[in-house]
Design a protein that fits this description.
It is built from 10 helices and no strands. With 247 residues, it is mainly alpha-helical. Bound molecules: heme C (2 copies).
Length: 247
């Protein structure tokens, strides 16, 4: 069998070689490709456009726990090569799952194909991730479509959540210091300027906020922000964020 003939071939290898539970695992991992993939995971140029500032690590841990208490919108990727489906069942193919991120969040024009060198390197990296804590079942991902006003929250808790989940892109609250993408508004000031009391009631404003966090760039909203699922951020935590940002 040819190793690394392409993404599809690599998938087939993984399935054939690591099939039966109890048998010792034999994995073909091309160290050089895996190392290249590891570098790509933390490199914004993976998207092939200077308009992108994100890396895969902006939104995903490779190994669970490596990003400390950061609240990341994407699932940890150790074990992803073995998962039965992706994006909560909306995508069956690993390459397709990655291409959604490259296209919707990282502004890449052309999807990776199975014989793209970078795609193969990324696959080799993901396959090389150790089994400790790796999630080989489908990752839970429940997008929230129906919007409602979250319960009243705790501002202190909201501040911590903001630092763990929002500051990576939006920068520090009030100043925007260390902001990753200039299009992400300084919270809450710049955002409030765009949603003035003359145009929005307080409830409408809260709901627009909830809509953005829940839908990200999807469901007609557009942009480059990832959606936060129910697993990543509960409605109570959304209430905490609102108590901090829009008291
Ligand atoms: C701006 C945030 C963001 C960036 C950048 C990003 N992703 Fe994602 N990714 C997500 C979200 C949100 C999901 C959907 C939730 C989930 O299933 O993890 C997702 C899903 C995935 C999945 C499916 C996981 C699963 O089990 O359902 C894979 C694989 C993946 N991304 C790989 C990558 C790779 C590789 C990169 C870098 C080339 C990348 N992502 C960049 C946010 C991002
Ligand atoms: C991976 C980067 C990233 C993360 C993480 C992120 N945002 Fe954003 N956010 C953006 C970008 C970029 C925009 C500008 C609009 C767009 O491109 O989607 C934005 C816009 C917004 C807006 C304004 C939407 C509008 O229409 O004016 C709100 C509100 C918001 N984000 C809240 C949050 C909150 C709360 C969190 C943390 C739970 C968060 N964001 C995490 C990137 C991010």
């Amino acid at each position: 069998m040819r190793a690394r003939g392409g993404h599809a071939a690599a998938l087939a290898c993984a399935a054939l070689l690591c099939g039966c539970p109890g048998e010792p695992e034999t994995k073909i991992v091309d160290a050089t490709a895996a190392e290249h993939g590891a570098a790509l995971f933390r490199d914004p140029s993976v998207a092939g456009t200077t308009f992108n500032a994100y890396t895969c690590a902006t939104c995903h841990e490779a190994r669970p726990g490596e990003a400390g208490d950061a609240l990341l919108p994407g699932a940890p990727l150790a074990g992803a090569v073995d998962r039965p489906f992706y994006w909560g069942g909306q995508e069956a193919d690993l390459l397709g799952a990655i291409n959604h991120c490259l296209y919707y969040f990282m502004r890449r024009d052309e999807p990776w194909t199975a014989d793209d060198g970078d795609a193969q390197a990324m696959y080799a990296f993901l396959e090389s991730l150790p089994g400790d804590g790796a999630l080989t079942e489908a990752a839970a991902f429940t997008p929230v479509y129906t919007l409602s006003d979250p319960p009243p929250g705790d501002a202190g808790e909201g501040e911590r959540l903001y630092e763990r989940g929002c500051a990576s892109c939006h920068g520090q609250a009030h100043s925007g210091e260390q902001r990753l993408v200039n299009s992400a508004p300084v919270m809450p000031e710049e955002w409030l300027e765009d949603h003035p009391p003359s145009e929005y009631t307080e409830l409408e404003r809260r709901l627009v906020f909830v809509e953005k966090v829940r839908h990200g760039s999807f469901v007609g909203y557009g942009g480059q922000m990832p959606p936060f699922s129910l697993e990543v951020l509960s409605d109570q935590e959304l209430g905490d964020l609102l108590a901090f940002l829009l008291p």
